[in-house]
Design goal:
The protein is globular, with a radius of gyration of 23 Å. The strands form 3 sheets. Strands 4-5-9-7-6 form a 5-stranded mixed barrel. A two-stranded antiparallel sheet has the order 1-2. Helix 7 (132-148) packs antiparallel against helix 9 (285-319). 48% of the residues lie in helices and 14% in strands. It has 3 domains: 22-161, no CATH class; 172-283, Butyryl-CoA Dehydrogenase, subunit A, domain 2 (Beta Barrel), CATH 2.40.110; 286-488, Butyryl-CoA Dehydrogenase, subunit A, domain 3 (Up-down Bundle). It starts with 21 loop residues before the first helix and ends with a helix. The protein is an alpha+beta fold. It binds decanoyl-CoA (MFK).
């Protein structure tokens, strides 16, 4: 006889995450020229299978074994060793082998290379335990070096950052934040002392250094006698270890205890005379690091998108196997409508994110016109802030769709919500990005340009409102622009 005691609910399962994603497939069919379809589809199908199986297992292993810092050897020598899990190491190798960075810089699919790469990242990220974070900084660093680095840095670093060989592949950190602030970096107190032609040694403390196990980092510092404020900052390249694999005058104080992203090593550290090379000219630090930020913000959007997709895939699957009140959840009209409404939010985020990715691809291939360049600059903060906030909302609703199980740690579901919160914090908070957008509007006449592009939408008239010049309305403006642009994308 079947009693309630015999009942055990099956948890949610993943299918090949590419095969099951009709929205992605249709987007790629309609937005990438047919000559690239076969190769890209075959690759993404392989990746979708890995994301649902091996990579998800490695990510679980990385989450179960967070990084550990050992500051001293048993005999008292300062060693600052960060131990990372096998899962994390395997994910790094997979990222290189699959060309997660390389695809964007080889540009074999011309301006569509970014679309291909970001589709790959979208599948990789939710099964990567946030290995996507070092990848974002790696990609941004490669772009900064490609734009502003000399031959030495191209050979020394760019080639490794963009390598498909796991033995040669490097990742990069981006160390911008000090104790005085991550949004307002004008108080940066790291000093760069001259040590030969374009060579410096850095002294200062960095408060958030993610991916501290990377081989290199880009960071901001102030040359001696440079002016105060952000205009006195320059951009520097450094390598974390010397030829004997010892840290290059770097002391790691501790790893951060974070709300989420726990597999990702994030440290506080001090540079105590670390050799560095300046990228760009003195005082150009913000402008030069902006090329990193613009890439990491697009990554943030794509990773938020992948995160939403994962949360929804699990919630849809569960709705088809969980019964309540005599029928499957999916057959309850209200449950189905709740998930369908979240699906619409996801799809809107998808449209905006890949619209910006396409612009990025065009700009990097030198075929974007002036309007497209302005749009890319203006919409990068918008897509980042919009998708981050929607991701938190979708993740919260998705775990609620599991009832109590969504609140229980060993189901793995609460992590969806904890991890989602980071998207709106790192790489610029919602308000900082909304204000950045406002600054761009003031400089580049973005609103008239947008009003012209969006003129078929009666709501675009709102863009002429004077109130947008007030910074307190910047957030409202940012979300309005996001919604209007999404509605204009066919
Ligand atoms: C890892 C585990 C997670 C743990 C939780 C997360 C913890 C948080 C970790 C972090 O701290 S992550 C870092 C977060 N911080 C940011 O993302 C930076 C946010 N701040 C900004 O984005 C500011 O706008 C910025 C620092 C870039 C600049 O502010 P400023 O100092 O007021 O400079 P300004 O005047 O806005 O820009 C200087 C120049 O750079 C201008 O050019 P001009 O000199 O020609 O006028 C700008 O146009 C240009 N610029 C600024 N942003 C740009 C840009 N150009 C292109 N693209 C951009 N995005």
């Amino acid at each position: 006889m079947n009693t309630m005691n015999d009942f055990y609910q099956n948890g949610p399962e993943l299918q090949n995450t590419f095969d099951s994603d009709m929205f992605l497939k249709n987007y790629l069919k309609n937005n990438i020229p047919a000559e690239y379809h076969q190769q890209i589809f075959e690759h993404l199908q392989k990746v979708g299978a890995l994301a649902a199986t091996t990579w998800a297992q490695w990510a679980a292993e990385a989450e179960a074994h967070p990084p550990k810092l050992t500051t001293f050897s048993p005999w008292g020598k300062r060693i600052d060793q960060i131990e990372i899990s096998n899962g994390w190491k395997q994910l790094e190798k997979a990222a290189a082998t699959e060309g997660l960075i390389a695809i964007a810089f080889e540009r074999k699919q011309k301006e569509f290379s970014r679309v291909y790469q970001m589709a790959l990242l979208y599948l990789f990220a939710p099964s990567s335990a946030f290995f996507s974070c070092p990848l974002a900084m790696t990609d941004g660093a490669a772009r900064a070096i490609e734009l502003d680095g000399d031959e030495n840095l191209i050979t020394r670093a760019f080639k490794k950052l963009t390598s498909r060989d796991p033995e040669k592949f490097w990742t990069s950190g981006q160390w911008m934040t000090e104790r005085t602030g991550g949004s307002d970096v004008s108080g940066t107190s790291t000093i760069a002392k001259a040590a030969g032609e374009n060579r410096f040694t850095l002294e200062g403390t960095k408060w958030f250094t993610s991916a501290t196990t990377s081989q290199m980092a880009l960071t901001l510092a102030r040359t001696e006698n440079a002016e105060a404020g952000s205009r006195g900052l320059s951009l520097f390249y450094l390598e974390l270890r010397d030829e004997n694999n010892n840290l290059n005058n770097i002391e790691v104080h501790r790893l951060k205890e974070k709300l989420g992203t726990i597999a990702l090593p994030t440290a506080e550290l001090t540079l105590t005379g670390t050799p560095a090379i300046m990228i760009g000219k003195p005082g150009e630090g913000i402008k030069r690091i902006a090329s990193v930020l613009n890439i990491t913000r697009v990554y943030n959007s794509i990773c938020a998108l992948g995160h939403m997709r994962r949360a929804l895939d699990l919630a849809w699957d569960f709705a088809q196997k969980r019964k309540a009140f005599g029928q499957f959840l999916i057959d309850h009209p209200l449950h189905k409508k709740t998930l369908s409404d979240l699906e619409v939010i996801f799809q809107r985020c998808f449209k905006l994110s890949f619209f910006v990715v396409k612009l990025l691809g065009k700009e990097e291939c030198g075929i974007a016109n002036e309007q497209e360049k302005i749009l890319l600059r203006a919409l990068t903060p918008i897509v980042k802030l919009y998708t981050a906030k929607k991701c938190i909302l979708v993740s919260s609703e998705a775990i609620e769709a599991f009832g109590g199980a969504g609140y229980i740690e060993d189901t793995g579901l609460p992590r969806l919500l904890r991890d989602a919160q980071v998207f709106s914090i790192w790489e610029g908070t919602t308000n900082v990005l909304a204000l950045d957008f406002l600054k761009v509007c003031q400089k580049e006449s973005v609103l008239p340009l947008l009003a012209e592009i969006l003129k078929s939408n009666p709501q675009s008239l709102q863009l002429q409102d004077k109130k947008w010049q007030e910074s307190e309305n910047a957030r409202e403006l940012a979300f309005l622009v996001a919604e209007l642009v999404i509605e204009s994308i066919t």
